[in-house]
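Hey, sorry to bother you again with one of my protein questions. I've been staring at a protein lately and its backbone has me curious. I owe you a coffee for this, so here goes:
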Amino acid sequence: MAGSANVTLAGAGRDRRRPGSDAASAARAQRPLVLVAAAFTLAQLVLVRPGMGLGWDETVYVSQVSGHAPAAFFSAPRARGISLLVAPVTAWSSATPLLRCYLAVLSGLALFLALRAWRGLFPVRVLALAGALFASLWVTLFYGPQAMPNYWVAVGALAAVACFLRARADRADRAALCGLAASAALMAWMRPTDAVWTSLPLLALALGRRHWRPLAALLAGLAAGAVEWVAEAYVSYGGLARRLSDGSAIQGGLGWHFAVTDQLRSLGGRALCRPCTGAMPHPVVMVWWFVLPALALYGLAVAVRARRGAPTALLLACAATAAFPYLFMIGYAAPRFLLPAYALLAVPVAAALGHLVTTTAPARRPLAVTLVAVGLAAHLAVQLAVLENTVGRTTAARRDWSRTADELHRLGVRPPCLLTGHDAIPIAFYAGCSSAATSGHNANSTRADIERTARSTPVAALVTAGGRPPAYARSWPSTSVGGLRLYYATPAAGS
């Protein structure tokens, strides 16, 4: 008995040591993922630079929760998730560099958590490479530190698929169920329609295989994330059906549109390709876009042969449904729209690359490693070149908006004030003014309202070079700034 007790006590001692040992081992295993996320954050701060001003859509989202300028018109397709995400900074500070740093750190943390959810489903080295592949795309680096929702849908989708697979495999895994609900809520919080498209394969699989607990968690997350958007539809947009209809109209009418070529044109760094005309980028810029699905399918074939194809197949299915509306249902393109698909495809692509360099015959392995390394280096060089050009061009355009706002202030158009016309929404934010439009997707006022406002408040109409001002502004004094002519009325200037 004494011997048995000693054995038991010794085993208990070993068991007490295991948690610490396991925790240290788990921490070491996560280091590659931590390094990838940290490098992603640092790359955003160095390559995109915190001083880059806010873009058009960013000013709309930020103005909803900022004290710097009145809230801009919030059109039907938009959701308030990104506004709430940036509120901890924008509610008390108008410093764009601070906002960029906050989002860069937050996006790095989100990437780490999304990759970490896949531990045990894929080797850590595959996950680290997948994170590096996704994080090194110019579009990921460019939008990671911006107040835009697409990156957050991407990391939410990546985490949701992992948590779904975990919850499906282990019914007692409450952490997986909570992670699935939280990831689905994040997607729906940012872009409800994107969340639904991305989740379709998960919903179908859960229903088909009767995985009721994952299904309930997924539906609860989608509902929690979308509840504000749905409620706002009835309060401000005439109901859910009307909001969806208005959103479709703003996007050019959802239907059959072959937008693949539009997406190709946007790969050269065009933030919004609408209308999407002009020459295609150089083939070197586009080649990765064709290699990506080919490698992903190869990764699926490898996984199926190894009899572990379910995770890869689900990733590809969700990537396909996430990309489908932006490739075949709208008549324009923006590279950020495909970020969720890129995030989901990164894992099977990384697995395929790993298979190529580890299973090749020993005599040919150095050649395979060299080819993969050279291909990745060339890919990275192209992505960085496109990023540098895009950041430079974008920064210059946003400085023009800032200079226009400064000129308006010099002319006496200061808060409270109202701007209308070309680029009125972003320039109004920079100037601290309201914005108004009498036509188009952002129509929120009438000519009579603007004329009435101009009798007591500084108002400016922004017109492109060679354009004609509104009838009510033709008698106003005007001046040129860059490519714009500013017609302004400052009735309160002398009071």
Remarks:
- Residues 1-17 have pLDDT under 50 and may be disordered.
- The radius of gyration is 26 Å.
